[in-house]
Amino acid sequence: MASNQQAEPHIEIGSVMRDTNTGRIGVVQRGPDGLTCLRALSDDDCWEVDANALSSLTSVEMLSARVALTNYESRCRPKAQPAIVRHVRWTLTPDQEPDAEPSTYSMQCVVCSAGSERSEGWQEPQDWALGHSGRNPAHHTFRENITRPWRTFMRT
Ligand SMILES: [Zn+2]
After folding, report:
1. Taking the model in full, what pTM does it have?
2. CA gap 72, 25 in Å, rounded
3. I need a labelling partner for 39 at 20 to 30 A (CA). Which of 62, 63, 81, 122 fits?
4. What is the torsion angle, in degrees rounded to the nearest 10, for the CA atoms of residue 42, residue 46, residue 48 and residue 50?
5. Do residues 42 and 72 touch, judged by C-beta distance below 8 A?
6. How many angstroms does the Cα of residue 103 sit away from the middle of ligand 1?
7. 137: CA distance to ligand 1 center in Å?
8. What letter does residue 44 receive in the DSSP assignment?
9. Rounded to a whole number, what is the distance in angstroms from the first to the last CA of the chain?
10. pLDDT truncated to tens, each residue of the chain (156 aa)?
């Protein structure tokens, strides 16, 4: 059984393994010069390892390592978003430009939720409410809905 040949451990880049020299667990990475490195689960610390000192984790250790790794990556994901190159202040204001959508009005019966057509004037919704009460004498309360256009602009 004596043999000088050491079993080559199965090392897969991206897998989670233990460095038996230090006891630390990390993600296997290919470092510079082709060396094998481990990257810590909860920060960006990397260290070189002796490939022969790597061992697999138990399934329970693997599970908690994966959880730690997922937590770390989700916390750090915003760092991978595009960088902010400048700050601008946005202002919100009612849109009174010539091409703005018109303000519109409508009435809704609070009792049965029936509603008028949306109108650019007051008259039609109000006429509708009066007619609705006439047809439904117990419906006396209405909700007025006003839709106004707004716009934002960048303050330089
Ligand atoms: Zn009604």
Report:
1. 0.43
2. 14
3. 81
4. 20
5. yes
6. 24
7. 9
8. S
9. 78
10. 444 455 555 688 888 888 998 888 888 888 777 788 888 888 878 888 888 888 888 888 888 888 888 888 777 665 556 677 778 888 999 999 999 999 999 999 999 999 999 999 999 999 999 999 999 999 999 999 999 999 998 876
Ligand 1 centroid – CA 121 distance (Å): 21
* Residue 155 phi, psi (nearest 5): -90, 120
| Interatomic CA distance for residues 54 and 130, integer angstroms | 82
| Pair of tokens at residue 5 | 């040949």
Residue 62 in tokens:
């693997």
**pLDDT value for 3:** 47
- Please tell me the distance between residue 109's alpha carbon and the centre of ligand 1 in angstroms: 5
Predicted confidence at residue 78, as pLDDT, reads 59
127 C-alpha vs ligand 1 centroid, how far in Å?
Answer: 14
Q: What is the DSSP secondary-structure string of 83-149?
A: PP----EEEEEE--STTSPPPEEEEEETTT--BPPPBSSSHHHHHHHHHHHHHSTT---EEEEEE--
- Residue 131 Cα to ligand 1 midpoint, Å, equals 10
Query: Which residues have C-beta under 5 Å from ligand 1, the single-atom ion?
Result: 109, 111-112, 114, 136, 139
